[in-house]
Amino acid sequence: MEYRKYNSQDISQFHAKYLIYEYAINELEPLRKKSVDQELLKDQKLNLELINLLNGIQYCDTMSETLVSEKVVNQILQESSQISRMLDRLKWNQWPVSIKWLLEAGLVSICLVSFLSLVPMTKVINILDQIDSNGYVVQIDRKKKVELEDAGTPNQELAAFSDEEVKTLDKKNDLKKSNDVSAASTKKIEEKKSEENIAKVDLKPPKEVDQNSAANQAQQIEASSVVEKNQRTSGFIYRGQFNITNVAMIAPKIKEKIDEMGGRKAGEVEIGWLKSPNVYYFHLTIPEAKLAELQAMLKEYSPNQLKKEVHPRVMPDGIIRLLFTLEEKQQNE
Amino acid sequence: MSSQDKEQDLVAIEINNLVRPLSLFFFYGLLNEDKAIHLTVRVVEYLKKQSVGQNLRVIMVKKAKDLFLSEWNKKTIKTKNAADFWIFPKGLDLGSWREFLFKASCDEVVSLLMAHVLKIDETVITEGLQISYGTHRFRTMNALKILGSGTYLLK
After folding, report:
1. Does the ipTM exceed 0.95?
2. What global pTM score does this model have?
3. How many Cα atoms within 13 Å fall on the side-chain side of residue B117?
4. A1, A44, A176, B31: which could join B77 in a potential S-S bond, CB 3.0 to 4.6 Å?
5. For residue B97, which residues of chain A lie inside 8 Å, CB to CB?
């Protein structure tokens, strides 16, 4: 290659940068080479580039010494010859496009048919059916009303297991409320007669307690037995509040009587605990058979009565729980 | 033997002589032994279909570059059994070359491999790649700078 004659001072730094490759591979004419040498003395970056080029060239020269084994060469030549022979015989390239497409479509359809014939589709379907049959279908009769268990009177306070405060009744309406409760319990009996085939209870107009105390007491016992049937899943407690004259003298007697009956304390405090001045607290358990006897004894001192209420604490069979207080009767009453 | 048979024999010999540089080109360009052999087979078959009298080297450069470009983006390195097929020179560190492949572009790698590894004539390269001398040298220079910055003088 011939280069035009030039002045050695013509070369610039930019020019030298792009001649560095020819300088590295020794293809520059002597004058230009000399100019590049002078630039190399001035510019360190150019020197670094030259070193990188020389490193790269040396690395490539090493790579070019790589030998290929005969195994590879023979493998390549054999593969190429086999494929070319097959294609030459078939003359695939000379076939029209429509026939090529037909052949491809035929091949795909053959593969599909063979797959469907070999794979047992009935078994696959049966397996899928078995997976689906694990689900259950439930028939709901919408006409049938869902019966809910009567858990007790509404708006009822649920007492805790430990000693609890006795419900404070209104002193003026004590009698009326007790009569109302008895009437309500009898109404409940009427509502549940047809379902449970219970013997009819004679309904009497509400009377004063003093005149029909025995009849009311019998009704309450029957009501309690009916409630007991309906509330087999939960327990119950007898609550009451008795206003007694000279309660300080009477309370120990009642406690002694309870002890004779076999009563035991049901909470943390003893039977007949003095809760506050002139208020005695009784929280106990007694045999159910002794209930009537206890009620009769309490009747001697006060007209009030024990009421049966639902409670989550379930007592063993034959044992009942009572919680009542004895208070000093006020002189106004 | 007729002249045609002689020419065909010469073509076959030339093609056989091109197997080695082709396999080196594809192996160093992709660092995948399976692809190197497969692509070399494809180029060899392509060369065999060419008519007599054509410059097989130029055709080889063009075809090799086309196939290399199609596989360039799928960089799956596999050199587990490379030592069985290629005998590497002592002291050659393929780690530097691998780093270079990640940094350089496809055109730079092709120019460098063809010029300095396969030692193909520049005229054949430029004719096969359909680029000018200046472009080819520019690409080669850039590739050498990248490669040289990651290597050191072996001697």
Report:
1. no
2. 0.49
3. 30
4. B31
5. 59, 63
